[in-house]
Amino acid sequence: MTTISRRHLLGMAGGAAALGLVGCGGDDDDTAEPTATAPASSGGTAANPTPTPRGIKPASEITYWSVHPANSKPVEEELIKRFQAAYPDIKVKLETAGANYAEVSQKFNAGLAARQIPDVVMLSDVWWFKYFLAGTIEPLDALIAEAKIDLSDYQDTLVKDYQFDGKQWGMPFARSTPLFYYNKDKWAAAGLPDRGPKTWDEFDEWAKTLQTMAKPGEFAFTHVKGDSYIAWTFQGIIWQFGGRYSDDKFKMTMDSPEGIEAGNYVRSQVFSLKYANVTAKDVNADFLAGTTYSMLSSTGGLAGVLKDAKFPVGTAFLPEKKQFGCPTGGAGLCIPKAISDEKKLAAMLFIGFITNPENTAYYSQNVGYMPVRKSAVNGPIMQEFFKKYPQFKTAVDQLSKTRPQDPARVYVPGGDAILGKGLERMVLNNEDAKNVWPDVKKELEKIVDTEIRPKIKI
Amino acid sequence: MQETLPRLPEARAARALQVRGSSRLARVVAYLAVILAVGIIVLPLVWMLTASLKTRQEIYTLPVSWWPETFRWENYRQAWTAVPFERFFINSLITTSIGSALELVNGVLTAYALVFLPFPKKNLIFLVIIAALMVPFQVTIIPNYVLVADLGWVNTYQGIIIPGAAVAFGAFLMRQQFLSLPREIIEAARIDGAGHLRILWQIVLPMSRPALVTFALISIVSKWNEYLWPLLVTNDATRMTLPVGLTQLQHSEGSSEWGVVMAGAVMVITPVLLVFLWAQRHIVEGLTSGSVKG
Amino acid sequence: MAVAPGAHRRTVPAVLRKSIPYIFFLLFIAPNIILLAVFTYRPLIENIRLSFYDWDLISPTKRWVGLENYIDYFQDSTSLYVMRNTLVFTVGTVAGTMLIGLALALLLNLRLRGRNVARTVLFAPYVLGGAAVGIVWLFIFDPRFGLVSGILDRIGLPSPNWYNDPNWAMPMVIIVYVWKNLGYATVVYLAGLQTIPRDLYEAAQVDGAGRWAQFRHVTLPMLSPMTFFLLVTTTLGSMQAFDIISVMTSGGPLDSTKTMVYQVYEEAFVRFRVGDASTVATVLFFILLGVTLLQVRLLERRVSYG
């Protein structure tokens, strides 16, 4: 199914040699990973020589499978219109491939079996790695260079989230982070300063006060559940406590003392400190209804929350414990391997265009996801936007402090669900983390051993 | 066991059976029971209707508000225009009507064969057909998608319809129905030299109208609401059906506009309900042409 | 059809003549069987075959593992828990659907005013797509804004934590599923009730049978073909219920609403473990086959046909 022609392979090798690419493993430095010393972006800051073109023209039509997260179809259609104005020879067909990230993965999966694949596919943080393991998506480094995309201008964490083994496997598009939302009215009523808590210890104090004014059924804070991605929000927390789900070599570390402490902390918020509960289904709804005064929720819902709230909404960085910790999430765009080179080039041009500074700002404003470009953040469009919505600025400011997610959650197939179930055992069943994490660890290790180690060197 | 009975002279007494002795009290109890049952069952539907006219804020208010403050017909307009609704509707209409028609033909023919046509080990064949009901859809969905793609039927009507034209439950239902028909009539017709198709068309089917209409209804509902298969097989609005198209109204991160989603759901369910309203008559009105009594 | 020496040529037409009716059978049944074979049985066989492999659906290579998947499956505590869930769910929904469905059908069979409307209303939940039903009931069971907690509060009963309590999530999905499928059972029973000839009731009456005796000796036996049909189809349907669980609980909390079908979906499409998914699906298939065979053996004898 994956047929890389010899010509293609040589072409890529040649291109790589010409650029002097250096492959590095992932690290936590803030400096951008030099996977492609890309030449000038469309802004024209040419500092490096253009790679030798392969002499192919981009295809005249490409297909893009999206799930239009946060009801973004009209925005995507506008972006396509803009692209076609800039590249009149490339037509883009937008297809709805499902209602959520799981469905587009299902359709892509089936499509691979039936050889009905798109040229650009939206794959979220927990779905793309499997397709990389199976060798069905294209490493984008050469294409990035050929399309003259300035990778260094992309937000570092967002780009790193789609890197593995020194190569770039997807481009960030609809990205988000968790954010601390709080109800300013309740904060004021409790006499708290109008900001988020700096640390969880501070929040414990505040929550005690908040809970005294809570009516029955109301809580100072609400956790999400397995299917609403508690494994994602908790990832920040375990980092704040100094632990991790796993290291970059897939060694499971959630059962470290720090991980146990973090797990038992969220458990205590519900069962011993009693100021938190777990949402029934939709934590944003709880927040809007006023039955929870604060929450950790995706920035992707920020626009909706601001629109519907009947009270002033505050946003803040995630609280710290021993240190700060915050993951990113959402979806990126990948290119399948089994399509023609012409289509790949056209696809890359498209992806590069809709994530250029102006367009990512447009997308971000209208949909609520993070602008994926550093220069977009400082550009006039976003600055205007921040004045109107300072809560949004908080989210973007936090972006520079984020870290790429742990492999246990995003690279292990089914990892998010397993972690989520473990966390549910703690916050719903009041089980001690030191009993739960070993089970989770065992389950994840089994998958790594049978499915990942045989395929890649780690 | 069916027996030939002497007819009772008073047909009127027979009708009085309905309210014999029990008279008013029983009727009142019956009415109350129906109202209670309907009331309980209809509440979520009423909620759905009122929610379709609310803004998202209204849905999320406490205490629960029943009546929409503002009748937000806008929700319906949004659901209609956010997606190419007429196109989806037509596609659904085509795939459902043709698909159900094919199912009906297949089911009736199969049932007739199983009941009235001689063949060794018919019961075994019957079980084999029922076995088709035991195969979960996750098992069939990808192999069938691969086959449909190989045939070049992706994003076509036939790709949606043909794999669903086979029917097991309908064959089952009609078999049960045919088995309960009085054999004498069929025998009589055979002796008179009638061919099987004629017997099927002129005798068996008219006597089985309620079951047939039931079969049709269940088939229509199932095809109208099909989601996963059309999602895989279609790519764009030219062939997409309503349920697939309408999921575009939902968000994956953050809260959806539930009022609009509910409006969409109301619009999907209405055509089939209208069909049911019209078709009820045929399920319930009793047998005609006295062929039972002979 | 004389059998005479050297009659070989003459018995050939005889054999043909005997099999002509068989040809009719084959002709009538052929389109359906062919379609079933292609679109249902072929994948089923393929699925059973895949259960002996380890495969992730997208790699070009599969690894033969023999019975390993089955051994793992039966030793896994989650799988056994899921089987138990499936049993509880099926029994609850089948009993609920059929009993309430029959009661409603009897009610609607009476000549009451407005029964057309009543019938439409009762059938409406069945017409709703599974996803829409799940969404509507998500709100109804919502511990704050929901109807259920509102009503329970009114009566003064405590509201269980439907979504987060593993003991209550299963009753919740059972209730929703029964609500949705009542209409199906009612309509089928109604059709059955219509075909019961009135003279049977008259005759029973003449023999002095009261309403209850009439019910037991006329209605139920005459309905038995439909009862059998409903038993088999609702059992098969329940064991494969997916949409509602997927939308409302995603199999949670803590796997308390995960049924075998949901497990198949998860193994195949979330964990990309086709061998495991096929194993569960095959086990499910054989359970269904066994249950149905049992129902056929035990019940079809007692079904009275015309």
Describe this structure in words.
The complex is a heterotrimer of chains A (458), B (294) and C (306). Chain A has helices at 6-19, 73-86, 101-114, 128-133, 141-146, 156-160, 184-189, 200-212, 230-240, 257-271, 283-289, 302-308, 341-354, 357-367, 374-378, 380-388, 390-399, 407-410, 415-427, 433-452; strands spanning 61-66, 91-96, 120-124, 163-164, 167-168, 171-176, 178-183, 221-223, 276-278, 294-298, 313-316, 329-334. Chain A is an alpha/beta fold. In chain A, a hairpin with a 2-residue loop joins strand 4 and strand 5 (167-168). In chain A, helix 9 (230-240) packs across helix 10, helix 16 packs across helix 17 and helix 19 (415-427) runs antiparallel to helix 20. Chain B is 66% helix and 0% strand. Residues 1-21 and 286-294 of chain B have low confidence and may be disordered. Helices cover 75% and strands 1% of the residues of chain C. The model of chain C has no long low-confidence stretch (mean pLDDT 85). Classes of the chains: A alpha/beta (458), B mainly alpha (294), C mainly alpha (306). Chains B and C meet through helix 2, helix 5, helix 6, helix 7 and helix 9 of B and helix 1, helix 3, helix 4, helix 5 and helix 7 of C.
End-to-end distance of chain C: 34 Å
Uncertain regions spanning at least 5 consecutive residues of chain B: 1-21, 286-294
Question: Biggest sheet of chain C, in brief?
Answer: 2 strands, antiparallel
Radius of gyration of chain C: 25 Å
Q: Can you write the helix and strand succession of chain C as a string?
A: HEEHHHHHHHHHHH
Helix and strand element order of chain B: HHHHHHHHHHHHHHH
**Low confidence ranges of chain C:** none
Structural class based on helices, strands and sheet pairing of chain B: mainly alpha
Overall geometric form of chain B: flat
Number of strands of chain C: 2
Oligomeric state of this protein: heterotrimer
Helical fraction of chain B equals 55-70%
Count of helices of chain C?
12
